[in-house]
Specification:
This protein is mostly helical and 960 residues long. 64% of the residues lie in helices and 4% in strands. Among the domains are: 2-164, Rossmann fold (3-Layer(aba) Sandwich); 170-227; 232-345; 641-743. It has a 5-stranded parallel beta sheet with strand order 2-5-6-1-7, with helices on both faces. Strands 3-4 form a two-stranded antiparallel ribbon. The two termini are 62 Å apart. Residues 850-915 form the HTH luxR-type domain.
């Protein structure tokens, strides 16, 4: 049984199942409303294709069934049907037994499949007989039944296995839209269609089919009403036209209430229905038909298309009457804003008096600072309605701007864009033009082309500089954010300087209370400016200024901005606390538009602190909030965080999926930061999978700035990974300039974690073992001071590997054991596996050794075997493990002898069977070997001629 609302694909799946099967019989039935009251009409339609075949079978039970359903070739006789001399009992079970026997006969010698669509519309007698037969079908009958029905609340036998169809998830819905579109589909239009389609396949198809190619490509504006008229007419005709008048009127009241307020109460609808004199059982009729269902004091339509069809499918005069009834009830209940919104919808033409009343009510509703998103959305809708009633164009523009601002605060980007489109045709005052450009820039910044957003925000700052310096400062801050996202370092510094210079303007005086106005946007930026310009003494001062400012700030917007500034100066603990407060304040005040950005800052802070599990949790929550708010750019930034977290935890598939999605869309929108983090995540994944050369090839363009989408911040932060990849891959390219730049940045911001990573890089490249040990020790102390468990574990692992290769196994086991504990504590599974393998290679007793054949392999043999089983060639294994191909070949021959295998394929099967794990799920078993401590910078000739302790390479041998 497939259960689901209309449009989810029930009929498509049944039609797919009803295709002819080899050597079998398929009976296909689609029940209809017109025949749902005619007795046995369902069985008549189901068996009619095989009636002639059944008549040729001499079987009294089949004859009785055919006679009962009217398939004997003559008109149906009296209801009582005789079998021989005994009358057929007029009980449902009798017809069910006859149907079960008939299905068994049809399936004899060949399989039988019965496909029944819209089974909820079967007549009662056919339904009961079919259920009786289904309950008694066994595999021996060789008969199967596939049913599809709506969620109508009717009970079906529990023996029927049920699958409930759900709306498509975002990837599937995106794939459907892309396949259906006749040409290119712009990301912005795609996101609009995804929100309008609600994951319903048929609705998504009709949305695409209703738009032209230029509209789908984003070249022409979308229509105000996306759903095609024929879709609404079909839904109205199919589900609503046959209802009693009172039931349809009740559904109209419900859909009208939801048209204005998505969370409209059921009590309001029922009171309006009572005033309209509707029958008391109207709601029960609608519920029995599976059209609506109640959830506490909420009434929900089972299909979003039904709600739209119930409202749009009725004449305008009936809709206005429904609005009037709801307005009366809501105003009596004290919900003035929603009530006035309904009253505005019942008016034809302009009404300045009603518009003034609505504006006054909205002003009272928004007087407090703590507002929920529902109130903000209701105020936005009411102001937009008041604008429609306003004659004066300036007043209309002002109300539309405020409506758009409330919709944005409520996290509804989909409602902001249409309001901005309506404003483009009006000639607003300069200050309104500034607010319009500011809001348009913010929307574009969160869900569009970032360069366009920056230009709009700079234009808004010019318009607002004389009349609203506070908003002008915020516009400059957002323009700086846009420059930061796109990787324009000079533009970012320019915008930050402009914000900080506002404090020196004669129009702006410092706020002694420091809690509102322009100083809120400039205090942090004034402290931030010298750090960004390279003043190495300003990092601590900036962190203290930001901490003090965040402690007394209460605005979620400003807290999010301060968290971003703290990230830039390396004050990660301040960023974490400030971003957390921003999330809490935004939720408390209903500022849903701020939540995705605040969670983004919080996730990045956790990421840089090494708390990857917490970063993933925050990023997942932020991704859901960003998608709900229609902020596609924030969603991509958060997916970049998820890619990095997945690279750490060992989820290779998740890392690639997130990173590829970010790179594909982020490049188009100019999200250089997100794209760079995604590239960096793939490089870190390569490191974890023992592919250091791939990691180095990916990181060099990113760190050197040769990539088109290389971000200036990521160019610095990715240097430690590049240093590790270069050393492990024995890459001859120089990294000394990038490393000095990273060290300078670490000293400027006094970031203990970054300083520790810089020391680790120097330890990896140190030629003197004593110097390397000292640098590793200093790095580990800084990691502990910064609380960076993951990076500290990486430092200990690398130190332990080097100690093991210097023939100091006891000291190596100390470092590797600490690394293993740290990796396990922070959930870095793939890195923990690598540390565990190194511990075993250093002579530590394994916690649980497999009793299979692989237990007889030495650690080196096991490492080689796992790499070969994963598909690596002998030369690739030699390069990764710093061995010669001849040594690898020698070890591999011994592996084949010990395990008794003759091919690499058999070797892979033995590892899966005896080790209890698949080689593909444990790529860490093939980790690389770190070069010995006498390795110097890759550009040095000593690096080329380094002799490895466990290698047969001669000093003068050239690296392949």
């Amino acid at each position: 049984m497939l259960l689901g609302a209309s449009g989810l694909g029930r009929t498509t799946l049944v039609d797919h199942g009803a295709r002819p099967i080899n050597g079998g019989t398929v009976l296909h039935l689609r029940a209809t409303v017109a025949e749902s009251t005619r007795i046995h009409s369902g069985l008549h339609a189901l068996l009619r294709p095989v009636a002639e075949q059944l008549r040729c079978i001499a079987d009294f039970r089949i004859d009785a069934l055919l006679a009962a359903v009217g398939l004997t070739g003559t008109e149906r006789r009296v209801p009582e049907v005789r079998i021989g001399d005994a009358p057929l009992e007029p009980e449902p079970d009798s017809l069910g037994r006859a149907l079960l026997h008939t299905l068994s006969v049809l399936a004899a010698g060949r399989a039988l499949l019965c496909c029944i669509d819209d089974a909820d519309r079967l007549d009662r007698a056919s339904r009961d007989a079919l259920c009786f037969a289904i309950r008694r079908l066994t595999p021996a009958h060789r008969a199967a039944v596939l049913l599809a029905a709506r969620e109508d609340g009717r009970a079906w036998p529990p023996e029927i296995r049920t699958r409930r169809l759900a709306p498509l998830d975002e990837p599937a819905a995106t794939a459907l839209l892309t396949d259906r579109a006749p040409g290119p589909l712009s990301p912005e239009v795609r996101d609009v269609l995804l929100r309008a389609g609600h994951g319903v396949p048929r609705q998504l198809i009709e949305l695409v089919d209703g738009l032209s190619g230029t509209q789908l490509a984003g070249l022409d504006p979308l229509p105000e009403r996306l759903l095609a008229a024929q879709s609404l007419r079909r839904a109205h005709r199919t589900h609503l036209a046959g209802l009693p008048t009172d039931a349809r009127e009740l559904l109209l009241l419900a859909s009208t209430a939801l048209e204005v307020e998505p969370a409209a109460g059921l009590g309001t609808v029922l009171r309006a229905a009572e005033r309209a004199g509707l029958a008391s059982g109207s709601l029960e009729i609608a519920e029995s038909e599976g059209l609506v269902f109640g959830d506490g004091d909420r009434l929900h339509f089972t299909d979003p298309l039904l709600r739209t069809a119930s409202y749009r499918g009725e004449p305008s005069w009936r809709r206005r009457a429904a609005h009037r009834r709801l307005a009366e009830v809501l105003i009596e209940q004290g919900d003035t804003v929603s009530g006035l919104r309904h009253r505005a919808a019942s008016v034809v033409g302009s009404d300045d008096g009603l518009a003034e009343t609505i504006e006054t009510a909205v002003g009272r509703a928004t007087a407090g600072e703590t507002l929920d998103s529902t109130t903000l959305l209701a105020c936005s809708s009411a102001l937009a309605a008041a604008a429609e009633l306003t004659e004066d164009t300036a007043r209309r523009a002002d109300r539309l701007v405020r409506a758009a601002e409330h919709a944005w605060s409520a996290g509804r980007t989909d409602r902001v864009r249409p309001l901005l489109t309506r404003l483009r045709d009006l000639p607003p005052q300069p200050i309104l033009r500034g607010r319009l450009e500011f809001l348009g820039g913010i929307v574009e910044l969160r869900d569009g082309i970032v360069d366009d957003a920056r230009e709009a925000l700079l234009l808004a700052a010019d318009h607002l500089a004389a009349t609203d310096p506070g908003l002008a400062a915020e516009a400059l801050v957002r323009a700086a954010e846009a420059a930061l996202i796109t990787g324009d370092e000079q533009g970012f510094l320019s915008e930050v300087d402009a914000v900080a210079n506002l404090r020196g303007s004669r129009r702006v005086e410092p706020d002694p209370d420091g809690d509102r106005g322009v100083p809120g946007w400039t205090d942090g930026d004034a402290a931030l400016t010298p750090v960004l310009h390279g003043d190495g003494r300003a990092g601590t001062d900036a962190a203290q200024v930001l901490r003090r400012r965040a402690e007394r700030e209460d605005s979620p917007e400003l807290l999010a901005h301060l968290a971003s500034a703290a990230l830039l100066v390396g004050a990660l603990s301040v960023a974490r606390v400030t971003a957390t407060r921003a999330v809490v304040r935004a939720r408390a005040r209903g500022r849903l538009a701020i939540i995705p950005q605040a969670l983004e800052h919080l996730a990045y802070a956790e990421l840089r602190l090494g708390a990857h599990a917490r970063a993933a949790e925050h990023a997942t929550a932020g991704l859901a909030a960003a998608r709900a708010a229609g902020q596609g750019n924030c969603a991509l930034q958060l997916r970049a965080v998820l890619a990095m977290s997945a690279a750490v935890t060992g989820d290779a598939a998740g890392c690639r999926a997130h990173a590829e999605a970010v790179i594909a869309t982020g490049r188009v929108r100019g999200l250089a930061m997100a794209v760079s983090v995604a590239d960096w995540s793939l490089a870190r994944l390569d490191l974890s999978l023992s592919r250091p050369q791939d990691a180095a090839d990916r990181l060099f363009p990113l760190v050197e700035g040769r990539s088109e989408h290389s971000h200036f911040a990521v160019r610095i932060f990715a240097v430690p990974c590049l240093a590790e990849a270069v050393v492990l891959a024995r890459d001859s390219r120089r990294i000394d300039v990038a490393l000095r730049r990273f060290e300078q940045r670490a000293r400027t911001t006094e970031d203990a974690g970054a300083l520790a990573q810089a020391l680790r890089c120097r330890a990896l490249l140190a030629a003197d073992p004593a110097s390397a040990d000292r640098l590793f020790g200093e790095a580990l102390r800084l990691h502990e001071a910064a609380g960076a468990d993951f990076e500290g574990a990486r430092t200990q692992r690398l130190h332990g590997e080097i100690l093991r290769r210097r023939r100091r196994p006891r000291a190596a086991r100390v470092q590797l054991g600490g690394a293993l504990r740290r990796f396990e504590a922070c959930g870095a599974r793939i890195w923990a596996d690598r540390a565990r393998e190194e511990l075993r290679a250093a002579g530590a007793e394994p916690a649980a050794l497999s009793p299979g054949r692989i237990a007889r392999l030495t650690p080196q043999q096991l490492r080689i075997a796992r790499q070969v089983a994963a598909g690596a060639t002998n030369r690739e294994v030699a390069s990764t493990l710093c061995l010669s191909p001849r040594t690898v070949d020698h070890h591999l021959r011994n592996v084949f002898v010990v395990l008794g295998v003759r091919s690499r394929t058999e070797l892979a099967h033995v590892l899966v069977a005896d080790d209890g794990i698949g080689t593909s799920s444990h790529p860490s078993a093939s980790e690389p070997t770190v070069l010995p401590s006498n390795t110097v910078l890759p550009s040095n000739t000593v690096f080329q001629n380094a002799v490895l302790p466990n290698s047969t390479v001669r000093p003068n041998e050239t690296r392949a």
